[in-house]
TrEMBL record:
Residues 1-199 form the YjeF N-terminal domain. Binds 1 potassium ion per subunit. (6S)-NADPHX binds at residues 48-52, 113-119, 142, 244, 307, 361, 428. Signal peptide: none annotated. Its EC number is 4.2.1.136, 5.1.99.6. This is Bifunctional NAD(P)H-hydrate repair enzyme. It catalyses: (6R)-NADPHX = (6S)-NADPHX; (6S)-NADHX + ADP = AMP + phosphate + NADH + H(+); (6S)-NADPHX + ADP = AMP + phosphate + NADPH + H(+); (6R)-NADHX = (6S)-NADHX.
Amino acid sequence: MARVDAAAAATGQDSFGLMLRAGEAVAAAALRLYPQAMRYVVLCGPGNNGGDGYVCAEALARSGTAIAVFHCGDPSRLSGDAAVARAAYSGVSQDIANYLPADGDVVIDALFGAGLARDVPSEVAEVIHRVSSARIAVIAVDLPSGLDGATGQVRGAAFRAARTVTFMARKPGHVLLPGRDLCGEVEVFDIGIPWRQVAAEAGPLCVNGAALWHDRHRALDAADHKYRRGHLTVFSGPDIATGAARLSAMAGLKAGAGLVTMASPAAALAANGVHLTAIMLARLDTADDVEAYLQDPRRQNFVLGPGFGDPERACDFALRLGHAGRCLVLDADGITAFRERRDRLAAAFDGKATRLVVTPHEGEFARLFPEIAKDATAGKPDKALAAASALGGVVVYKGADTVIAAPDGRAAIEEHAPPTLATAGSGDVLAGIIGALMTQGLPAFEAACAGVHLHGQAALRAGRGLTAEDLARAVLPL
């Protein structure tokens, strides 16, 4: 956004005019949302976010409301548009350390915006604590102060806003956790910068949604048959650990695969057979069995890992699938099997088309990408993109703010998955959904994005108290 602002100024737009529109939009939001406020308290920072605050304060003063303004840093050192805004403010301001919350206050937080990249000063942290303890409503300008706009992480301390007013577009910190929870409801206000200038600086990071896969999804056709809809194979674990793979297989069938086969070791055939009806069953014990199974060219898409156990067999099977040109969703034990041998996985699935999707949670991500996981300065999208580049496959970095990243630099953040997904077996269901979408012809990145979306929607349908079995039953196709 700093580059967008600079581009707007370079093309002749009045940068102070943009600040006026931003500050007055915040004032309008405050009057609309909290008309009962006894006093609006505007906290102004040492940069352009503070300039927005001074504009907001002047607009509120003109409306006849009671206001108080507190500054962070020396306001005489302000420069540029922020200094102009400060000079245009007709009232006085006090040092922020003097602010003591009072009943009836509404705080307008214009201290630090999305560009914050350091911990907030101690005096700001103290005010944040006071406001939080007093349960004073906060309206944040751009982003709650203390949040890193690139990562959504807290820099020492951060306000919890009831409403955030940002400009032109949301930032990653509005969507990633814990930022998403601290922003409250986010209102995006167009301050008049031409959208082409915003789009020119926008990276490939976006919010997950149907626009990402809609044009690549093939709708059902009257001439379709089960093989045209795709054949998904899910590898089963041993006889005492078959449930996870069955969850993946059922989810794959519900998500629209034409047929699903459970590839089971001999010892688990009886356990799987007694539970399976629409899902077919095949015996695959050894690498030779896998090679024979791959002689059928219709068997193109696989899920490996849920409940699989045996890391050596998992590694062997996955590499054979890769060298045979097949597509694979690698989850759970399959991911762990490639700890310290990720390069072999990347080499097996190397090629023009992306054929590999891995779906790690936090711990599995650290096992497969230890050098990336330990970078405390990188946000979740940056880590996911680095991992996808290193692997040459799509990475679904799971969590309450799941990030889907492709090796070509595209990334999406899922923001609608409910917390009920934090249950055993949920990830197994997700792997099956993604596998099914790949069988239907969606490319790996689009299949992963759509799969994460369908997974969240199924959880919303299943409601509170869901189990993984409920989740698999609630899956619907695209």
